[in-house]
Design goal:
single chain; 90 residues; alpha+beta; three-stranded antiparallel beta sheet; 4 helices
Length: 90
């Protein structure tokens, strides 16, 4: 599964878990607990957000952009693309 599909399917998550993406290869990601992962990942991985926060933002986007023309799958993909396009890869 690539990062885009993972984000598009993220529906809910427990607190304390986060998502990191390799800034050199955005399709490579890592999911882990903050207590263990923050200082152990290679420097090329950047923090995207907590899984519970990302799941909430996805659901909010779907709820507020729902229309006859776009179903949940299309909206989920659209939201995930937007999240990845706004990553600070610098």
């Amino acid at each position: 599964m690539n990062t885009l599909n993972f984000l598009a399917e993220l529906n809910d998550a427990e607190k304390g878990w986060g998502l990191w993406v390799d800034k050199d290869h955005v399709n490579q990601f890592h999911v882990g607990q903050y207590a263990f992962e923050n200082d152990r990942l290679p420097k090329s991985f950047i923090h995207v957000g907590s899984l519970d926060s990302l799941a909430h933002k996805r659901q909010y986007y779907i709820l507020h952009n729902n229309s006859v023309d776009k179903n949940e799958e299309v909206l989920s993909q659209e939201w995930a693309e937007d999240v990845l396009s706004h990553l600070d890869l610098g």
